[in-house]
Please model this.
Amino acid sequence: MSEHPEGGARAFQPEGQHQQPAYEPPETVTDPAVQGLIADPHEEASRRIIEGEHSHGPRQTDVDPRAAKRAERQVAALFAVSALATVGFVLAYVLIDLDSITSLAWSNRLLGATLALSLFCIGAGAIHWAKKLMGDDEYVQARHELRSTAEEREDFVDSFRRGTDDSGFTRRSLIRRSLIGAMALLPINAVILLWDLAEEKPGGPGGLRETLWGPGVPIVAAVTGEHVRPEDLSIGALVNAEPENLEEIPEGPPRLNALADSAIILVRMEPAEIVSQQGPDWDYQGILAFSKICTHVGCPISLYEQETHHLLCPCHQSTYDLADSARVVFGPAARSLPQLAITVDEGGYLVARQDFAALVGPSTWEPP
Amino acid sequence: MTGSTAKGASTATAGTRAGVARMLPSPKDNLAAGAGTYVDDRLHSANFLKRGLDKVFPDHWSFMLGEIVLYSFIILLLSGTFLTFFFVPSQAEVIYNGSYVNLRGVPMSEAMSSTLDISFDVRGGLLMRQIHHWAALLFIAAMAVHLFRIFFTGAFRKPREANWVIGVTLIVLGLLEGFAGYSLPDDLLSGTGLRIAQGIILAIPIAGPYASYIVFGGEFPGDDFIPRLYTVHVLLIPGILLALITVHLMMIWFQKHTQFPGPGRTEQNVVGYPLFPVYTAKAGGFFFVVFGVTAALGALAQINPIWLYGPYDPAQVSAGSQPDWYIGFLDGALRVMPNWEFWIGNLPISLNVLIPALVMPGIIFTAMALYPFIEQFATDDNREHHLLDRPRNQPTRTGIGVMGITFYTLLWINGGNDIIADFFNLSINAITWTIRVTCILLPPLAFWITRRICLGLQRRDLEKLLHGRETGQVKRMPSGEFIEVHAPIAAEERAVLASHRTERPFELPVMEDANGIRRPHRRIAGVRARLSRFYFADQVEMPTQEELRALEHHDGHRTDQVEHQVEQRELSRGSGQQ
Model:
């Protein structure tokens, strides 16, 4: 071994120079009772039964015909239970209609129980059969050395060399290199085809940066869809809200797309409690609006603690201090929740003053 | 030509006859023989099939873990096929009008609506959904435990390295397949999981936004993703899984199964029961048992009640949302990571997302896949191994495994930190900080403790081998001396203990010969020598082959001499170590 310390240099060696024998000498056979049973690994028919002290001894079913008969009946009984359960399954399917939650629950239980029984009993029967009635003697079978003989390896190398010589793959470097080059480019075909999986591109309109908010866009409560007046919000309250123009977007995926970056929360606190904001006077009389989408990986944030003004993301526990520009006070998020500057319109309803100034949702590169 | 065919056919008949006659002493022999002849006339299969029927498999409970994986995969294919007949993979919006009253009139995607129909309006539909989900959890759990078995017993060693790599690939694909599967119903829980996945994709520097738009067809959530995911879940990944599982099994068949050490078991043989009939009955029966158990779970244990979650809405989430168990460690990693993020212009490098979600799993799975080769390099072991290691006999490897499991478990626990905080009324910040610290400190500690335990167990084995088993009886000799009575251990146990060989660390070869010529690859040899010491420097000295033989023959004086000799050697090593 010490002549060849380098790793990985154990490639195919047709000349048969092995550093180590592929097989250790059979040193684990210390037991003379067994030693004689180990057949030559190169001999095909090498099955013997281990007898004597190494067999588990006779089972009850081996010595007592009545026990064997009993085991046979047990196996048959298990198979019979399976057959009955199959009948039960059919009955449960035919007889129980799904006309109420209760009948659904019973249908599920009975179909499941009968199916489970019909399957399990076949399995249990087969295993019982094997354990009680099938042969209990262990067999020894020789392993064959996985490596081929030196001659076989040499033959292989000869054949391979004949092929490479004939094709001139090694000699004709122009062909070899141009083939490798062409093959290396082929995956581009597959990759380029995937490009149009993106029906729009991230840089385009309505992309990552833009939301539905803009100057004067009214704020509506998420559940009722009604406009919000400052006096609707008491100190300590949190209201989920969205832009009024969300209603103009067709229902279904387009609206969900818009909602995914336009959802906000409104909170109200004593103006004196506000430590800082992301812009000058972006609040309205202590009412603050923030994006509802966590800047970590985009979960909608929902858990608000009035006392501390902390807002907690239920997914990964990023915690934001809403009284202090919604900066991150704990957890894996790095950026503050973007603040939406708000005011009231002439009707006294809350509206946005402009779109978010910061990127909504997870941090990402914004393509030009 | 005709002659040889006729000869093959007659061999088949005789072989089948002999085989069947033992099992089923009935006139049906003729039928079996006829079938054998028919097939053999066309495929020359008699010899091949005979060897198949006779093939011996060793018996051990832990060899059933891989079977559970295979069987739950088959259950997944069967139950999944049923589900595809009813599921509509579409994000087009419909107004739900099915049997579940609480959601009537609610707008939702066709995917969600059809999943509700499977649950409430198709007889056996809910059962099949629940069987499918339980089987998926079992599939991945069994893969994980199977992996532990392979790792700790060294079954990945030569010649089985390739099968190990296939196994690691299967686990990664299994995780993806599971995640894809529970994302398909488009309910609130799965949608939240997808939103997190999209957030992770967005964090990839530069390529992130493009990748997200390619995967989702545009903005999140869009209307393309569920149909695309469906193709991935029912065709692409299962196809690859099926192909890899087939190769995995073919290699097991061809290389023959490993076995634990025991009387008569060597590197050159397989000791066990034949495929036909014993394993046909046991393994075939076990398939039905596994299927039966998942059916019972589907009947009695509710799983993924999407009707309670409601349809996906990007502005809603429920507290305590948890992914399936196998995604938990990734979620826990995301939770435990400090909020490190820096910006180069308008390009964020979001280490808070990249490290836990992409880098860490990338490193873990790559290291796992490469482990057999790393160990082979370190131990300089190029032999074939068919006898399994007892984990205690490879303290370093076992320590590495326990270290990995400890790390994984801590992340997994942190995946439920909100649940734990709520249940035990603890501070979530304190739990997260505890995991931040322990996931760095505990794994090395676990490694060290495990290694010490292994070495302790080795010493006990040596004791038993030299003196036999302690009986707890103390005897007073006529001379007044007290001795503790030891009983000889059983031959079976003895064979197991004696199979352990002390491995020697790789000795650094001479680096420069007499003529001042330096040997090539000196640095590699140095790295190997260090790694090899890491693996084998601490080892209990086992008796040599010759000493074992002397111990076995019980000729009083010589036995005492050998016992003394072995003990002295072990003691001197122990003192040298400290």
Summary: The first strand of chain B starts at residue 56 and ends at 57. Residues 1-25 of chain B have pLDDT under 50 and may be disordered.
